[in-house]
Specification:
single chain, 249 residues, alpha/beta, 7-stranded mixed β-sheet, two-stranded antiparallel ribbon, 7 helices, 17% strand, globular
Length: 249
């Protein structure tokens, strides 16, 4: 017997898909498969080094954590973190729909909602995932910006679950940068990248507003710090100091 909990996400996806016209559904299907294949092909040629801020090699599989990163490096992050069943927030908009579907192809699990719509529902879904031991991840300046400005979702989630926050940024040596609000980066084939991962940022359980604001400022500072580091050191990716990460199959 299949439980109601197991079938609900499928029904929600089907209902969300039906809100679009037949032409929009065709375009969504086309973008989904084109995006997946392009990222899969290019991603297999890109080599990425990982630098951990605390100095000790970590693991992408370690969990649970509340991860945050900027929207600009979503594509290399999608490929690098694939098949880990990471929970990500996805809106019901057209852009959110195709982005969520591409991410599902790479083994992510989307939780419906966004910073502007159904946020409470989405945060509850992310909270359940963390309590079950999964990773929750936020493109923190998405879905519409402003660019490089944090939102409070990860702090609230960390405070309610006692799961620490971690941030990262991926810089690339060669990329196509789209003329969009987020300056989305598409890696060029055979480019190199450097991912800088912050140390853990704990948030006090049941934090008051003052503590949450302080944690939000720490989150912003950490994201700015890892971005600056990755962008300044990316051309050293593949050296003895920053050896390439060995991809999973």
């Amino acid at each position: 017997m299949v439980s109601a909990a197991a079938t609900t996400p499928v029904l929600e996806d089907a209902a969300s898909f039906q809100q679009f016209t037949r032409w929009q559904r065709f375009v969504l299907w086309l973008i989904e498969w084109t995006g997946f294949l392009v990222i899969r092909i290019i991603g297999s040629t890109v080599k990425i080094a990982i630098s951990w801020e605390d100095g000790s090699p970590g693991s992408l599989d370690a969990r649970p954590f509340v991860y945050s990163f900027w929207h600009t490096c979503m594509i290399p992050a999608m490929y690098l973190w694939r098949n880990l069943k990471i929970r990500v927030m996805s809106s019901d908009s057209f852009d959110g729909e195709y982005t969520g579907r591409i991410m599902q192809r790479f083994g992510f699990v989307k939780v419906r909602g966004s910073s502007s719509r159904f946020a409470v529902r989405a945060l509850l879904g992310m909270r359940r995932a963390l309590e079950q031991g999964w990773i929750a991840a936020f493109t923190l300046d998405g879905p519409r910006g402003p660019r490089f400005v944090v939102k409070p979702g990860p702090v609230s989630l960390a405070a309610s679950t006692s799961v620490p926050m971690v941030v990262f940024h991926i810089a690339l040596t060669d990329a196509w940068v789209l003329n969009t609000w987020d300056k989305l980066m598409i890696p060029k084939p055979f480019s190199r990248g450097l991912m800088r991962v912050s140390r853990c940022i704990p948030v006090p359980a049941k934090a008051d507003e003052h503590q949450k604001q302080r944690s939000l400022e720490e989150l912003q500072a950490a994201l700015d710090r890892v971005r600056e580091f990755a962008e300044s050191k990316v051309h050293q990716a593949g050296t003895d100091e920053f050896p390439f990460y060995h991809e999973r199959s």
